[in-house]
C-alpha cells in the first residue's frame, strides 16, 4: 500500500496442539510450547513494525462440525462427556426407582421423606416446570453442572493435567493446601457451593452455567487432560471466567472474582507476563474457539435435565394452563398468540346494516 515495497516470509507451521504438554499429578513441571518465529525482511521504504508470532486467521480457528465429529462441544450429535461418565450411575438410579415401585406400602411410607412423591402427567393434566431452553432454572442448572463435574472427577480414566491448573502450584487462597489434595475426591455439595458462590456474587445467569460446561469439556477434549481433585477448582474458574465475559450481557472484570475468592491476587488471573495466566492459557488450550452453536447448547441443556432427573433434583412442577403455556412460549407462532390475546366477544352486524338500501328514520318536523 502507498507504493511501499515489503517482503514478509512466515517461518514455521501451524501452532502445535497442547496434547503433549500434560503431566501426571506427581511430577509438576511447566508445559513447554514451541513458539513459531517470524522472519520479516524490510526495505528502506518499509518502516512498519514487525508482526508478532504467526497467529491463524479467525476463520481457520472455527472448526466445522463435520471436521470433528468426536468433539461433543462442537458436533451436535456427539454424546456429551459427562453423559458417558455418568451413564452407569443414571442406570443404577433408574433401577432403584423401578424396584421401589414394587416395594410394600408400609416400606414406602417409612421412606417417603427421602424420595418425595413424583407428579406424573395424564391425559387431562400436564405438569411442567418453569425451566426452558431459553430461560433455565438457575438453582437446578447449577446443581446439574456440579453433578457433571462430580462424575467427571469420580470416573476419570487417568490423572493427566497441566501445571497451570494445579492448585498446589497456584492456590486460590492463602490457606494451606492439604497433603491429600490430589487424591481425595470432592463431594457434590463442595462443587455446588464453589460454583454457586461465584454465580451469586457475580450475578451470572443459568445460560452461563451451561456454556461453562461446554467450555470445560472442550478443554478436556482439546488438551487431552482429566479433571481431578488437584485441578478442578482452577479449571471450573477458568471456564466461568471465559463464559461470563463471552456470553453474559454485563461487564465482568477479573478483579470482581478476586473479591469473591478471598486472598487471591489479580495477577494470578490476568497478568500477561506471568506463566500462570489462567484465562489466557485456557483460551490457548481450546484454540481460541469460543463458539457455541445453538444445537450444542440445546443438547447440553437436555442432557443436564436427564442427569438432574436421575439424581432426584426436584423441579417445581405445576399444572399447565393457557397463561403458563403463553408464558413458556408453548405457542410458537405469533398468529396463535394474537388469536389467544383477542377478546372472546365479537360484535355482529344487524340485518338493517346488511341491506343495500339502509332503512332511514322518518322525522316529522312541525
TrEMBL record:
Residues 193-284 form the Cyclin-like domain. It holds the Pfam family Cyclin_N. Keywords: Cyclin. InterPro entries: Cyclin-like_dom (IPR013763), Cyclin-like_sf (IPR036915), Cyclin_N (IPR006671), Cyclin_Y (IPR012399). Residues 23-32, 76-88 have a biased composition (Polar residues). The keyword Zinc-finger does not apply. One of its GO terms (molecular function) is protein kinase binding. CDD domains: CYCLIN_CCNY_like. It comes from the Eukaryota. Residues 1-34, 67-88 are annotated as: Disordered. PANTHER family: CYCLIN Y, ISOFORM A. Belongs to the cyclin family. Cyclin Y subfamily. This is Cyclin-Y-like protein 2,Cyclin-Y-like protein 1-B,Cyclin-Y,Cyclin-Y-like protein 1-A,Cyclin-Y-like protein 1,Putative cyclin-Y-like protein 3.
Amino acid at each position: 500500500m502507498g507504493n511501499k515495497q515489503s517482503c514478509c516470509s512466515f517461518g514455521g507451521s501451524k501452532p502445535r496442539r497442547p496434547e503433549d504438554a500434560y503431566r501426571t499429578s506427581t511430577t509438576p513441571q511447566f508445559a513447554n510450547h514451541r513458539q513459531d518465529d517470524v522472519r520479516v525482511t524490510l526495505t528502506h521504504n518499509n518502516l512498519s513494525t514487525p508482526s508478532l508470532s504467526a497467529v491463524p486467521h479467525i476463520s481457520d480457528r472455527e472448526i466445522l462440525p463435520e471436521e470433528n465429529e468426536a468433539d461433543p462441544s462442537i458436533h451436535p450429535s456427539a454424546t456429551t462427556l459427562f453423559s458417558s461418565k455418568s451413564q452407569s450411575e443414571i442406570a443404577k438410579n433408574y433401577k432403584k426407582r423401578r424396584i421401589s415401585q414394587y416395594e410394600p406400602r408400609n416400606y414406602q411410607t417409612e421412606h417417603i421423606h427421602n424420595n418425595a412423591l413424583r407428579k406424573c402427567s395424564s391425559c387431562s393434566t400436564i405438569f411442567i416446570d418453569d425451566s426452558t431452553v431459553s430461560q433455565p432454572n438457575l438453582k437446578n442448572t447449577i446443581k446439574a453442572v456440579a453433578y457433571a463435574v462430580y462424575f467427571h472427577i469420580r470416573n476419570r480414566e487417568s490423572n493427566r493435567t497441566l501445571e497451570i491448573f494445579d492448585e498446589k502450584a497456584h492456590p486460590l487462597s492463602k490457606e494451606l493446601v492439604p497433603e491429600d489434595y490430589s487424591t481425595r475426591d470432592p463431594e457434590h455439595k463442595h462443587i455446588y457451593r464453589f460454583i454457586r458462590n461465584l454465580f451469586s456474587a457475580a450475578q451470572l445467569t443459568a445460560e452461563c452455567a451451561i456454556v461453562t460446561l461446554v467450555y470445560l469439556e472442550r478443554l478436556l477434549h482439546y488438551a487431552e487432560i482429566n479433571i481431578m481433585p488437584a485441578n478442578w477448582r482452577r479449571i471450573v474458574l477458568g471456564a466461568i471466567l471465559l463464559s461470563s465475559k463471552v456470553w453474559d450481557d454485563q461487564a465482568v472484570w477479573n478483579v470482581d472474582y478476586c473479591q469473591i475468592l478471598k486472598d487471591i491476587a489479580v495477577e494470578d488471573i490476568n497478568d500477561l507476563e506471568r506463566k500462570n495466566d489462567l484465562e489466557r492459557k485456557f483460551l490457548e488450550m481450546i484454540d481460541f474457539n469460543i463458539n457455541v452453536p445453538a444445537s450444542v447448547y440445546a443438547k447440553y441443556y437436555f442432557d443436564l435435565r436427564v442427569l438432574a432427573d436421575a439424581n432426584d433434583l426436584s423441579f417445581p412442577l405445576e399444572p399447565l394452563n393457557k397463561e403458563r403455556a403463553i408464558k413458556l412460549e408453548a405457542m410458537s407462532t405469533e398468529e396463535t398468540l394474537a388469536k389467544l390475546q383477542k377478546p372472546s366477544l365479537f360484535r355482529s352486524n344487524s340485518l338493517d346494516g346488511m341491506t343495500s338500501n339502509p332503512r332511514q328514520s322518518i322525522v316529522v318536523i312541525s
